[in-house]
Automatic annotation (TrEMBL):
Protein's organism: Riccia sorocarpa
Protein's name according to its UniProt entry: Uncharacterized protein
Family from the record: Belongs to the plant acyltransferase family.
Superkingdom of source: Eukaryota
Pfam family, one: Transferase
Taxonomic placement: Eukaryota, Viridiplantae, Streptophyta, Embryophyta, Marchantiophyta
UniProt cross-references to InterPro entries, sorted A to Z: CAT-like_dom_sf, Plant_Fungal_Acyltransferase
Length: 443
């Protein structure tokens, strides 16, 4: 679902020229193989994680001096030797069968385009709205899921040149193949190879590590999904943290929990639910450091959902510190036993977002995405360290589109500089137009 309409200039296809297209294949020689999904991969279907990085050349310099195409494609071929699922295809072997991952080295589509204008004519970097035309998905991946014998690529790359000398590198990968940690692990490794350095952390492709540990049996719609992006200053984050710590009995609270608690309360208030109704906060947490047998380089999806349920009345009648403490407790309790139970539960239940927590997290309360706030903290992703030999990007964006109602109330937190612990954050909130219109500018 294309939920944001780019500027009219971006829809003027006469300004777009395709310079070249190619399939970049792994340099390594591997026998084709069907890679089995882990149960945590099964959560994700047609979603692609799409990001782009802007690299600015010096006045009078050529964009190829900053980000040479030959260096990008050559180093990509070397990176795909290690991250070979990104050279494969998503295939439905038979009609109505589940999508499978075929590591056949068909290659990642790599498109080089030219936009006959400056960056500001295509996007507003201060109030960025997702734009499909710079992602590469527009040409390669159909708007409706279509899987045939040839399959669809797991990784799609587009480089766009602008008249101002800026070069844009866009990468889009299937979330079913890799979560954000694995995806940015790939990007960081690709950049290391482009700089002539060895990969610092090799990927681990053994997805059986996250298999079920035992046989387990656990007993007003919003329309027109859109996005608003806010800048959250470090000063404002420090104020929220100080307020939460002052009002909480918990001695230590993370900045992420304090900001999440603030947004949970704000979005819930703007929705206008009755005090007796339930609201839930979904925190997507990286499980790699929480599982003793899971290596840091595990490649795939290794995310669990920490769910915090309370009534609307409890959330809004108490302090910010009370909400932050709830989130702190839920994250703290997300240990190996809980994660393994979650994997077991998924292995015997057909997954639906609305069913999360039925008996594992929060029994007996109503289910509705309109009562849910979801957080994806990506401030640790190394976007501003992605130097391919010509300098670091500025800025970087999550270019999300084709989302549905399951995204309403979800926010993504991205860094705006390095180190990420000192700079401002970019907060992108997804929701129905009626919800987004009620959000204030001051977050």
């Amino acid at each position: 679902m294309n939920f944001n309409t780019p500027k009219s200039t971006s829809l003027d296809f006469s300004k777009w020229t395709t310079v070249s297209t190619r399939l970049v294949k792994s340099e390594g020689k591997r026998e084709p193989e069907w890679m089995e999904w882990s149960i945590l991969d099964s959560i994700w279907d047609g979603l692609y994680s799409s990001y782009f990085l802007l690299y600015k050349s010096e006045p009078g310099a050529d964009a190829d001096d900053v980000l040479p195409i030959d260096r990008l494609t050559g180093s990509l071929a070397k990176a795909l030797e290690h991250f070979y699922p990104f050279a494969g295809r998503l295939i439905k072997p038979e009609k109505d069968k589940a999508v499978r991952l075929f590591c056949n080295n068909e290659g990642a589509p790599f498109t080089h385009k030219h936009f006959d204008s400056v960056v500001s004519d295509l996007m507003d970097v201060e109030q960025f709205e997702p734009n499909e035309l710079i992602s590469g998905l527009y040409d390669v991946y159909p708007a409706a899921e279509v899987f045939d014998a040839s399959g669809v690529p797991t990784l799609i790359i587009q480089v766009t040149d602008f008249k101002c000398g800026t070069r844009c590198l866009s990468t889009s990968w299937s979330h079913k193949v890799a979560d954000g940690f694995s995806g940015t692990h790939f990007l960081a490794s690709w950049a290391q190879i482009a700089r002539g350095e060895p990969i610092s952390l090799l990927p681990v492709h053994n997805r059986t590590l996250l298999g079920p540990s035992k046989s387990s049996r656990l007993a007003e719609p919003e329309e027109g999904i859109g996005i608003r992006t806010f800048k959250l200053s470090r000063r404002r984050m420090n104020e929220l943290k100080a307020e939460a710590l002052r009002d909480s009995q918990v001695g230590t609270l993370s900045t992420a929990n304090c900001v999440s608690a603030h947004l949970w309360r704000l979005i819930t208030q703007k929705r206008g639910h009755a005090p007796h109704e339930m609201t839930r906060f979904f925190n997507f947490a990286n499980c790699r450091p929480r599982l003793k047998d899971c290596p840091a380089g595990y490649f795939g999806n290794c995310l669990a959902i920490a769910v915090s349920p309370v009534t609307v009345g409890e959330l809004l009648s108490n302090s910010l510190g009370h909400a932050a403490a709830i989130l702190h407790k839920t994250i703290k309790e997300l240990n190996e036993d809980v994660i393994r139970d979650f994997i077991d539960w998924l292995s015997v239940n057909k997954f639906q977002w609305s069913s999360i927590g039925d008996e594992l997290f929060m029994p007996g309360d109503p289910r509705s995405n309109l009562h849910t706030v979801q957080a994806s903290w990506q401030n640790w992703f190394p976007f501003y360290e992605l130097d391919f030999g010509g300098g670091r990007p500025s800025p970087a964006f999550r270019n999300a589109f084709r989302v549905d109602e399951s995204f309403t109330g979800m926010f993504f937190a991205l860094p705006t500089s390095i180190p990420s612990t000192q700079g401002d954050l970019s907060i992108s909130v997804y929701g129905g137009k009626n919800l987004l219109g009620r959000l204030d500018d001051e977050l």
